[in-house]
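User: I'm writing a short methods note and want a consistent example. For 3-methyl-2-oxobutanoate dehydrogenase (2-methylpropanoyl-transferring), I'll paste the sequence; you return only the structure tokens, no commentary, since I'll be parsing the reply automatically.
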Amino acid sequence: MSNITTNINRDFETSKISFNDFREIILNDYRLAVESRIVSLLGRKEVLTGKAKFGIFGDGKEIAQIALAKVFEEGDWRSGYYRDQTFAFASGISNVYHFFSQLYANPDLDADISSGGRQMNCHFSTQLLDDTGSWLDQTQQKNSASDISTTGGQMPRVMGLGLASKLYRENPNLDYLRYFSRKGNEVVFCTIGNASTSEGVFWETVNAAAVKQIPVVISIWDDGYGISVPNELQTAKADISEALRGFQRDGNGNGIEIFKVRGWDYPALCEVYEQAARIAREEHIPCLVHVTEITQPQGHSTSGSHERYKSTDRLAWEGDFDCNLKMRDWLLQSGIAKEDELTQIEKESKELVRNEQRRAWADYHKTIQKDLDEAIELLIQIKEECVELPLRTLQSLAEPSLKEVYSNVRRAIRELRHIASPEKEQLLAWFIAQQNKNSDRYNDKLFTDTPDSPLKASVIDAIYTADAPLVDGREVLNACFDTNFKRDERILAFGEDVGKIGDVNQGFAGLQEKYGELRVFDTGIRESAIIGKGMGLALRGLRPIAEIQYLDYLIYAMPVLSDDLASLSYRTKGTQKSPVIIRTRGHRLEGIWHSGSPMTVLLGGLRGLHLCVPRNMTQAAGMYNTLLRADEPAIVVECLNGYRLKEKMPANVGEFTVPIGVAELIKTGKDITVVSYGATLRVVQEAAIELEKMGISIEIIDAQCLQPFDRTQICGTSLSKTNKLLVVDEDMPGGASAFILQEIIEKQQGYFVLDGQPRTLSAKAHRPPYGSDGDYFTKPSADDVIELAYEMMNEYNHEKYPKLF
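Assistant:
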């Protein structure tokens, strides 16, 4: 382990620059450190005075982040967290104006360039897409994946961002993708707080990075605490680099290079980062830089004070070893600068930050003021006593917000409910137009919605020849993947048991041998890292299929799926996309740990991903054909018990498409509309045969996708004919079946055509016990469907359909 802790001056490569140029570089670094510190101090004041909601800052880490930014080149990537403000300023990812615009939650993307007001301050992002949703040239800019607040959440995607460089270097067939890489010479720079290294995703990622040897430099900012909890309670040996010593490369298998350096030692920091970046860039060896003796002058955030948990001695030490003060002392002692020069820099920095803060506040206020002025002008025109209170309220606002503007306008509209006038109509028209504008400000871009959206894909029907072979469903999938791999060099697949054996159900059988280990490969048992790998690869222009072996296992990757991938488009206001496809299998499994169908968990946590639930492998293949040509992320849940069921092989197996979000009418009927999906659809089809014998004709609709659901509203159309609705699935009660019910009854206005109570049939509220009997008594069976459908008909006509029980 490289342990660089010296606090004396270091030799710099100065042969190509004069001393004055060298001195100017260092003074500019000091200026940046001072500016960033003033941003932190002023930002806290803005929160405490009520101008901003919450603040979190990077004070105490200025010098280390300036050193890190020196080796951050165009084409490189950052995957960091909410302490990286100085790095963002030094690298040009953000600036003081944009920082304060984000602090005030300015919804204008030109002001808050990272999120358009959707993320709290210190959450940085760079634009990866142009106005049409097409990729920008990543090699011509410094790239930052959009930050998330989840501690350690920045780690998993590092795997894919770094692996992309490895693939671009080692696979010459990707050379044409010049917008994404320069022969794999990019480094991923990841930052994390020392306390967050206790998270499992940190260890998953470090282990995976060591195994795959990806070009990443991980910086650990160690200030001794995780909010109030000290290192001694966080980490073995109270020292993360000591705890990681076994990962240090020693010629005995793959490993990482570990450096340790003090956070106030400017020369040593510059040297360490130069070494680490070179090793990662040239040799593709992951490096970890443990930056110790960092301080946090204002504590964790604006929510509290660190004086509550730090001792007097610790606080005194932090005052003495503040990195900015230590650099100032070094500049004076080394003769690089004089006192008056530094004082002038500090004065100018304070003025610059204050001016940029005022400009950001003024621009944010203009956004509000325009809406406020228009609302007041419209209310003034209405000569009714009932609008006087909301009008006076708006006129008296000293520091207005959009919430106050629209709350008072809505109040006025309610008060005018019995009054008709042209002035009221003008107010209503303005309000409706503004609601559309506010939707753009706060609600759009759950998906990127580009011309390549899967919802805009052309529908190509499956073609069957007269002698189309009847094969196992898995063979249809395998042929689909084979054709797509041949068509598009960007496609790759990975997961547990995906490579050598072609996955546990043979969907990728033989494809590693055919297309090589760079495109079809195995991973360890690390679900978070698998999803992160897929996300990072997709951010860099590749088309990954990330396999999670069983549906239940998605839960182990939920933080990455929910906090990062699903919210990516929304939180960047459509400026970043990651079209990864997550492939998994489930339904009708037997046993508590292999039996879940947690669709409601996915529906609740993964808005921002398409959720596909095909009934068989042909439908699954058509969905993959659609998604692999589109640019939005999706989960495809295949039916585990369908791989060996016989299906016809389409002649255009790699070309036909199944539209996303379009339900399909499987069987016509006149008595009850039955909506289902996945494995329970076959249960419903089985029940339909006996129900016909009992004089009950059910119409069966396959939802096919839960998100989006039934865009063409065939469920509502069917219900208008049958007037009765039954939803069948094997999620727990109140789960996906309740979601489907709400979609049909409320959104498709099915309530108005019902002539009986709509019903749902789901699994029991517990996981199924092991065995076929346990499955029968836990999840919907054909008997359950028959009896509930009959009961519904009994309620409709008890004479024709007498009670069974």
